[in-house]
Design a protein that fits this description.
Structural class: mainly alpha
Shape: globular
Radius of gyration: 22 Å
Order of helices and strands: HHHHHHHHHHHHHHHHHHHHHHHH
Number of strands: 0
Distance between the termini: 31 Å
Largest sheet: none
């Protein structure tokens, strides 16, 4: 999210060199191309993560992101800049494999809190980006300042452990046990060796990616979930990016406004963590969509003489968008089996990025009515909230490994026999 938004700040800094003053479409094209590249890239990064491992995918994409960003700082002309922007979005973003690695190495009870704690990185990153952009007027040095640290992802090769769940599903039990023993030692826990020996999981055969997807889509329930997740992702990216883009119309310094827009993520993360810890996924997601819809639809009708109320509505609406984006990210990964979890998560996220591609064009609606963009955001949120009725509610369920287990979500607890295939059975204390 921060990367796409900061593109607007960067390209405005480069206005004079690329002669963009009279070409507004070239400015908006930067964010659109990045989102399109990210959409295409998730179809590559997701399957790559399922094939070569979460850790390897994180290292590769992290380093490539730094490389293409740094290369862009030497752009001799606008279209070279655009090409590097596309490549960075396509194969230089490590968010998807990193997220799946996080949820697979943490036990069910601690998964939510750990994920939300990691989410603070987005908040601090957004604030830092705005600050660096403010103090670095030269856009080339700005890009170098924020992308050179990307090469530090190479160190993750030695600092990170691979997902035990992924290792088990690939039939590499000894490596998975080694990772779990290391975790137990770090936490000063003693686990019976027999517990590790009894760990089992349905081994994923060397089946082509399209065959794995075919097995997933054979299930009518999983097809319906895929459709709903697409709606969630499209609505979430469209609304959240649309709100960020339209935030530049607020009074004040654009860098400060962007920093504040990122800062609101901190209370949003704390609140959504509390809500999801005490409640399940479905109701909070629906309420955040519907509350956001009310705020967006009401926004155009606020009297012009009450700017404080307008800003308040904007900030609360921005917080709601953070709510349903965070819940969508987690909810999606919990609805599909391990075999294709990262691939399905990446597929939903990728196709759903259509919302992020369309969002930069919403300011054009102001020609017809200044409140039309906000009204559209509200209607989209209503539709996304209604589709949530079509999926099961989850929270304490173990992550499913197979299609059968995924289909049983929300109906009853997984039978003991099947539950033995879950890592959490003997490592819930880690």
């Amino acid at each position: 999210m921060e990367r796409t938004s900061i593109k607007t700040l960067t390209i405005r800094i480069a206005d004079s060199q690329f002669q963009l003053a009279c070409h507004e479409w070239k400015r908006t094209l930067v964010g659109t191309v990045h989102s399109f590249g990210y959409m295409c890239g998730l179809l590559i990064v997701g399957p790559m993560s399922d094939r070569v491992g979460r850790k390897t995918a994180v290292v590769i994409t992290g380093i490539l992101g730094g490389f293409f960003g740094l290369l862009r700082s030497f752009s001799p002309w606008y279209w070279f800049y655009i090409a590097m922007e596309f490549l960075e979005g396509a194969i230089g973003d490590s968010c998807s494999p990193m997220y799946v690695l996080v949820i697979e190495i943490v036990s069910t009870k601690r998964r939510l809190i750990f994920y939300m704690m990691c989410g603070f990185g987005y908040c601090f990153g957004g604030i830092t980006l705005a600050f660096v952009a403010w103090i670095t007027p030269n856009w080339r040095w700005f890009l170098r300042a924020i992308y050179i640290p990307g090469f530090l992802f190479f160190v993750y090769k030695f600092l990170l452990d691979e997902s035990p769940r992924w290792l088990l599903i690939k039939g590499r039990k000894n490596e998975a046990v080694a990772v779990l023993e290391k975790a137990a030692k770090k936490n000063k826990l003693t686990i019976d060796a027999n517990s590790f020996n009894q760990l089992s999981c349905d081994v994923s055969p060397n089946v082509p990616f399209n065959e794995l997807l075919k097995d997933t889509f054979k299930s009518s329930q999983l097809r319906m979930r895929f459709f709903v997740c697409l709606v969630w992702w499209t609505a979430s990216t469209f609304i959240i990016y649309g709100m960020i883009i339209n935030s530049v119309t607020l009074q004040g310094n654009k860098y400060v406004n962007y920093g504040l827009s990122s800062l609101v993520e901190i209370p949003a993360s704390l609140i959504v963590t509390y809500i999801l810890t005490h409640f399940k996924r479905k109701l909070p997601l629906m309420l955040s969509f519907f509350t956001g819809a009310v705020l967006c639809i009401a926004q155009p009708f606020i009297p012009l003489g009450l700017p404080w109320l307008s800003i308040t509505f904007y900030m609360v609406g921005r917080m709601m968008s953070s709510f349903f984006f965070a819940i969508t990210y987690m909810y999606t990964s919990e609805l599909f089996p391990t075999y294709t979890r990262n691939s399905m998560h990446a597929l939903c996220s990728s196709v759903g990025r259509v919302g992020a591609i369309v969002a930069p064009q919403t300011p054009l609606l102001n020609v017809y009515w200044s409140g039309l963009p906000s009204l559209v955001f509200g209607l989209v949120a209503v539709f996304a909230g209604l589709t949530t009725f079509l999926v099961p509610d989850v929270s304490d369920d173990l992550l499913p490994d197979t299609v059968l287990q995924a289909e049983s979500l929300g109906k009853s607890k997984i039978p003991p026999k099947d539950a033995e295939t879950h890592i959490e059975r003997d490592t819930s204390k880690l």
